[in-house]
Structures are given as structure tokens and as C-alpha cells.
Design goal:
single chain; 345 residues; alpha/beta; 5-stranded parallel sheet; globular
Length: 345
């Protein structure tokens, strides 16, 4: 990606709502998206090298949904995530160091090395867990939103899940309960077109996942998930509805993962042409083009931003490598302390 390229094809622009977003906000979003992209690139290599046990699920290409959605909620609002969760955790404010150490299984990780890459959590930051169970995080977020309503808290919960979760019963049970109880819940489906190796449209009946959700009596929309502003504005509207007591909203973001489902995926179920088509809609390139057009990013400033992201990730790797391994004698600590949970809902 370069600022002054003259032979690159014209990129799809951001939605019209971008003109109302301040320069400093767009620039901050770009920095977070660059951090996520670099984090995923480095951790993919570390997983292949065996530094990260058990492999990982990269979110490269899906940065706009995490950054746009989480920027639209408050710092005291809660999110839950799926097995593909690094972008959510970084956008919610967890440090690259705490996430990287967790991926390494080290004591300085956000879960002290007990969870690994599919079970990131930081209750103080409002991340109530990523989840290895398909659609499992939605039920947790639904319960959190119920607690918020019962306690009259001016807060919302937001759940992320993938298109594969649209074909499991627990997802729609949670959507149904949130709808009939008018809970302050925002439901975000990251439809990256593939559930592991299976195209979503081959196994998902109906016009769309959003159309299926609309049948439960809540507002449901399909949004360009590669447009950070479009996602932000959709979630902002959903949060305002929830805080006004109008209940949950469902947002299906159309997005794409550049890497395989997990480490070592051969990706023989899709074509290079398809991947390149989606790279033409790259969320970082689209945001960059907007900032260049405004004169906010000039000359080699984009390369500087990339270098800054790389330096932050390199520091996180060094931090994780030097962090000690957990003491096995503490393995029951988090289990026996649940009588005093580390959150306030």
C-alpha cells in the first residue's frame, strides 16, 4: 500500500457518512487497523514456527468491523467475541503485549497464560471473553445485557460471531430472548463468506443472515463490512436505540479474511481471483485513500504509520518471549475466586 501510487486501480470509496467524521478520528482508526493487520501478520508466522501453541485464527482483512463497531460504543460497554478475536481485543483497548503473552501461554498474558488465543478476556476493559464455541459468545452477551437492563444501567452489550454461527441453534435462541425482552444488545455477524472451508451461501437458507434475523422482530441490516464508517454508523444507531429502551439490533457485516481459517489452512476451497477481488475492497486502503484526499496523510507518512505499528508488535513479541511461564501451583486460582468476580454488572 502506497500513498502516491498512480497505476493502482481505483479503490471503492468510503460511504458518504465519512465526510462527517473528523480527521483525527479517522487517523486514529487507521492506526488501530494497521496495528491489527501487523499483529495478525506476525502472529501467523509465529504460529507456523511453533512459538504460539495450537495455531491461530487470523482476522487480517476484517479490521474495519472491529474498529468501527467498537469505536461506536462506550468504554463501559461490554463485548464478547468468537474464536477469531485478536482484532476485537485490540480495538477494545487490550495491549498488544498482554494479548501476545496470552498467545504464548505466558503469565503476563491477559488471562495469565490460561486461555490462549481463543479465550482472550479482560473484564476491566469490557472484553467478557472470546469463545471457542461457535456462537457461544452471543449467549454470554445476551446475559450481560439482561443484567444491564435489570439493574437499569445505561450501558449496552455487543456480541460478535461469524457466519458459521448463523446455523447453530444457540445463536437464534439468544436473538429471540433479546428481542422479546427488549434487551440492550447489539448483535454483529462478521460474514466472511466461509465457515471453515464451506461457503456460507451453500448452507444458509434465506435471502441473507440479516433477513433471517429480521424474522425475530428486531431491526436487522446488511452493511459493507470493509467500510469502517458504515459499520461505525450502524452500531452507533443501534446503541442509541438500545439506550432508549428500544431493544436489540442485528448487523450483518460483509467482510473477508485474507488468510485461511486457521494456521496451516491450504485454502484450496477458494480461488486467488476471489481473494484479489476482496483485496480491491481492502478496508485499510479505503480509509487511507480518504485521509490522503483530505491531506491528512502525505508523502511517506503512511510508511511511518506502518513502521510504528510494526515497532509496537515487535515490542509485544519481545515482551511475550521474556515473560515467565505460569506457576502450575496457581492453576486453580481463577476458579476458586469466582465468588468475587472481577466485573461490575
Amino acid at each position: 500500500m502506497t500513498v502516491n501510487s498512480t497505476d493502482a486501480p481505483e479503490l471503492v470509496p468510503l460511504c458518504a457518512g465519512a465526510r462527517h467524521v473528523p480527521n483525527e478520528t479517522l487517523l486514529a482508526w487507521l492506526q488501530t487497523m494497521l496495528l491489527i493487520r501487523r499483529f495478525e501478520s506476525v502472529t501467523e508466522r509465529l504460529a507456523i514456527a511453533g512459538k504460539i501453541p495450537g495455531g491461530m485464527h487470523s482476522s487480517a482483512g476484517q479490521e474495519a468491523i472491529a474498529v468501527g463497531a467498537i469505536a461506536a460504543i462506550g468504554p463501559d460497554d461490554v463485548i464478547t467475541s468468537s474464536h477469531r478475536s485478536h482484532h476485537h481485543a485490540l480495538a477494545k483497548g487490550l495491549s498488544p503485549e498482554s494479548i501476545m503473552a496470552e498467545l504464548f501461554g505466558k503469565v503476563d498474558g491477559c488471562q495469565h497464560g490460561r486461555g490462549g488465543h481463543m479465550h482472550l478476556a479482560d473484564f476491566a476493559q469490557g472484553l467478557f471473553g472470546s469463545n471457542g464455541i461457535v456462537g457461544g459468545g452471543l449467549g454470554i452477551a445476551m446475559g450481560v445485557s439482561l443484567a444491564m437492563k435489570l439493574r437499569s444501567l445505561p450501558r449496552v452489550a455487543m456480541a460478535f460471531f461469524g457466519d458459521g454461527g448463523a446455523n447453530v441453534g444457540r445463536t437464534w435462541e439468544s436473538v429471540n430472548m433479546a428481542s422479546i425482552w427488549r434487551l440492550p444488545l447489539i448483535i454483529v455477524c462478521e460474514n466472511n463468506l466461509y465457515a471453515v472451508e464451506t461457503r456460507s451461501d451453500r448452507v444458509t437458507g434465506g435471502a441473507s443472515i440479516a433477513a433471517r434475523a429480521a424474522g425475530f422482530g428486531l431491526p436487522a441490516s446488511q452493511v459493507d463490512g470493509q467500510d469502517v464508517v458504515a459499520i461505525h454508523d450502524s452500531v452507533k444507531d443501534a446503541r442509541e436505540r438500545a439506550l432508549a429502551g428500544e431493544g436489540p439490533s442485528f448487523i450483518e457485516g460483509l467482510t473477508y479474511r485474507y488468510d485461511g481459517h486457521n494456521t496451516g489452512d491450504s485454502q484450496n476451497y477458494r480461488t486467488r481471483e476471489e481473494v484479489q477481488l476482496w483485496r480491491h475492497k481492502d478496508p485499510i486502503d479505503r480509509l487511507l485513500r480518504e485521509l490522503v484526499s483530505r491531506g491528512v496523510v502525505k508523502g511517506d507518512e503512511f510508511e511511518v504509520l506502518q513502521s510504528e505499528a510494526a515497532a509496537r508488535v515487535d515490542h509485544a513479541v519481545s515482551f511475550a518471549e521474556t515473560s515467565p511461564w505460569p506457576d502450575p501451583s496457581t492453576s486453580m486460582a481463577a476458579v476458586t475466586s469466582l465468588s468475587s468476580p472481577p466485573w461490575n454488572i
